[in-house]
Automatic annotation (TrEMBL):
It is found in: Cell membrane. It comes from Sphingomonas kaistensis. This is YetF domain-containing protein. Residues 93-161 form the YetF C-terminal domain. It is a multi-pass membrane protein. Belongs to the UPF0702 family. Keywords: Cell membrane, Membrane, Transmembrane, Transmembrane helix. InterPro entries: DUF421 (IPR007353), UPF0702_alpha/beta_dom_sf (IPR023090).
Length: 173
């Protein structure tokens, strides 16, 4: 059964508007239940879940049958459920966390590029130089450490004596 056939020629636009609003409301309810992490990019999966949710909202808004719409809504719920389960698993098991999360990687130390680490991470020297410029450092020699974070972001430490805890868990540190 078509969802909005009784609306006549305005059915597709009105349907898209109402269904998208419903999908967004459902997503906000789920985000409220799961917590602030729902749209973070703390891990690669969190980032992928955010993109998937957006795609599923768009799909829900274009459905013309109830069954299709409910499938899209269920898929949004499934993304949140998996994300919630993974977050809980990370909290309770270090081994689980290590298995599913990326490990931060040291790419530069005391003004020296770590070529092997850069090659393994598939990061170019020009990318690191760009990050150094954006960090406000005036020289490569000012860089104490550069870290490729679990999210894919690159952090630049320019303090000559950084707190060693900042490099805890960083491969190559």
């Amino acid at each position: 059964m078509n969802l909005f056939e009784s609306l006549g020629p305005a059915a597709p636009a009105a349907g898209a508007l109402l269904l998208t609003a419903g999908a967004i409301a459902w997503t906000l309810i789920l985000a409220r239940l799961v917590g602030l992490r729902a749209f973070s990019k703390a891990t690669a999966f969190d980032f992928a879940a955010t993109i998937a949710t957006g795609s599923l909202i768009a799909q829900a808004g274009t459905r013309s049958e109830w069954a299709e719409y409910l499938c899209a809504m269920a898929a949004i719920g499934a993304v949140f459920l998996v994300q919630f389960a993974l977050a809980k698993g990370r909290l309770f098991s270090r081994r689980f966390q290590k298995a599913i999360d990326n490990e931060p990687r040291l790419l530069m130390r005391d003004g020296r590029f770590l070529d092997e680490a850069m090659r393994d991470a598939r990061v170019t020297r020009s990318t690191l130089l760009e990050r150094i410029r954006k960090s406000g450092a005036h020289s490569v020699d000012e860089v104490t450490a550069m870290v490729l974070e679990t999210t894919g972001d690159i952090s630049v430490l320019t303090d000559s004596n950084p707190d060693p805890r900042l490099l805890e868990g960083v491969r190559g540190a």
